[in-house]
Amino acid sequence: MFRRVAIIGGGAAAATLLGELLERQPAQPLHLDWYTGAAGMPARGVAYGTPSDRHLLNVRAASMSMFAGKPRGFLDFVQRDDPAIAGTDFLPRRRYGDYLESEVARALKQGKSLGHDVNIIPVAIDALVPENDGITLIHGDESHHADAAVLALGALPPPPLGGVSDAALDSGRYVVDPWPLLAGAIDISPPPRKVVLIGLGLTAVDVVLELAAQWPQTEFIAVSRHGLLPEAHLHKAAAPTDDSAELIAAMREAPEIHRWLHLLREACAQETDWRPVIDSLRPHTAGLWHELPLEQRARFMRHARWAWERARHRMPPQVREAIAALERSGQLQRQCGRVRSVHLVDETLQLTLDHAGETRTLNADLVIQTVGLDTDVRRTRHRLVRQLQTNAHITADPLGLGAQADGAGRLRHGGGSWPHLFAIGSLLRGRLWESTAMPEIRQQARNLADHLLGD
Ligand SMILES: Cc1cc2nc3c(=O)[nH]c(=O)nc-3n(C[C@H](O)[C@H](O)[C@H](O)COP(=O)(O)OP(=O)(O)OC[C@H]3O[C@@H](n4cnc5c(N)ncnc54)[C@H](O)[C@@H]3O)c2cc1C
Description:
single chain; alpha/beta; FAD/NAD(P)-binding domain; 6-stranded mixed sheet; 16 helices; 36% helix; binds flavin-adenine dinucleotide
């Protein structure tokens, strides 16, 4: 058992691990240091820090519990205020933030009653040094010791896309990270006439819904290679297919992406709706991914990832309807194209796009990068991750999916796995592939708590 544990990160993953640890009654009380970062409200993170009711969970309420052992957790929380809420509803993410905060408060109280000692420290850790008898954590001029540390850092700060000129970046008209803009931390006034979004996933959907309401006269153009929106959930929930054993066995027998796609297409064709087939893979995704040889994972990333993410990370039906209304009104257009460059020309941003062998340009007053989460530790400007990478304390996943780890979430370095340095959430995508949403994170938190408190 590790007695003094440091959790680094102020989001839902850190909060869930904290909750799991403080529920337990180990042989000796724990000393927990929770470093929540310099900004934002602990527990909510980017995803659940949004105050906007336009931003909905993309997972139904019944599946959003923080705790693997209390599957109704979130649903019970919201039904206390409104018994009419159903488990199949897609609720505002703001409500989920309320739930996270209330669970953290409850866990802290319970932890105290069990004799655990918890410090919440609102600073970002700059550097970590793994040593034989534990880990030294450094922020500013201060250093602290822990027996074990857990990185719960979420996604890394997004870097600008290649091809964006320095002048475009310096102009303030190219937004690399949309969340501070949505939170009102970046002032854009007067409202732009024309906005181009690069990327068309769930982030783009959130951004358009919010900004189209704030700037009703603005025209939005969303560009992506295929010009397709994420798929949508159906209003009515369907349970995942329960006879997926044959499909999974066939996938295991042939760990090749083109074969898997073929098997999936066949399985979907046999159902009235494809969604339950995709959902039935969820508990098996980490195992399947782990068995896939590296060159096949690379193939997936090049050719199939975009289609998988469209099908797997779906938008709630009411969000799809709101986006469709914006398209009907002409306020939102979608275009196909790969963005090659963005330059500042006079007072306008000029994008050069390639599509179907042709090159064209598009002008915008504001460009927002909405390409989804970044987990590439090899090129990040995240200070702590850069330090860990520079000092070879972690090993990058070769496909840019976080850091290498073993099955217990222990981070790997050149010579093996650290016994006392762990990660949870997005940094483990290389190991697990699906490692960013609450259903996966809560299971990781539970396993990690068992591990940290085990003999
Ligand atoms: C917009 C959006 C919507 C989403 N919607 C859903 C959904 O509906 N359902 C679902 O299951 N999942 C959803 N997700 C996935 C989501 O990533 C997870 O549910 C969860 O929020 C991840 O939490 P996290 O703690 O891993 O990361 P984050 O919430 O990003 O938290 C990481 C925290 O670490 C802090 N940090 C970073 N570096 C340091 C440091 N050096 N020292 C200290 N602290 C540091 C950051 O400041 C931040 O507070 C969504 C994600 C996004 C971005």
